[in-house]
Amino acid sequence: EYFTLLAELLKRNPPYEADAPMLEKLAEIGIVPGQDFDKSKFDPAFAKRLPQIGFAKIMLHFKFSDGDIKDIDGWGFTTKTGIYGT
Fold first, then answer.
1. C-alpha to C-alpha distance for 54 and 41, rounded to whole angstroms
2. Fewer Cβ atoms within 10 A, N terminus or C terminus of the chain?
3. If we measure between CA atoms, which residue out of 86, 64, 76 comes closest to residue 19?
4. Of 80, 56, 53, whose CA–CA distance to 66 is shortest?
5. Cβ–Cβ under 8 Å, residues 2 and 31
6. CA 75 to CA 77: how far, in whole Å?
7. What is the pLDDT along the chain (86 residues), one digit of tens a residue?
8. Residue 38: enclosing H or E segment and its boundaries?
9. Which residues contact 37 (CB under 8 A, 6 or more apart)?
10. Phi-psi region of 66 (alpha: psi -120 to 50; beta: other; left: phi over 0)
């Protein structure tokens, strides 16, 4: 449902041109602005691994944040919220 919702939101909220690199990555898994998400084409093995991949990416972000994220009592904190770029 998450990717279906994302595809629907991209129809109503077109991405900026600067988002092109991310859109290329999303297209690899079938998420294309203006199109419905077809979950039947989504690789089931990848879908099963997605939660672990997401968690690993978050942990890598903590490790290589150059001090932007502080671990305080098991919670990640940053003062750079709102500085997103694209």
1. 20
2. N
3. 86
4. 80
5. no
6. 6
7. 888 999 999 999 989 999 999 999 999 888 999 999 988 888 888 878 877 887 787 778 777 777 778 878 888 787 777 766 66
8. none
9. 3, 4, 6, 7, 30, 31
10. left
Closest CA to 41 of 53, 28, 54, 52: 28
Task: Quote the tokens at residue 34.
Answer: 């203006």
Tell me, what's the pLDDT at 83?
62
The token duo for 20 is 């092109």
CA distances from 15 to 31, 32, 35, 37 (A): 12, 11, 13, 16
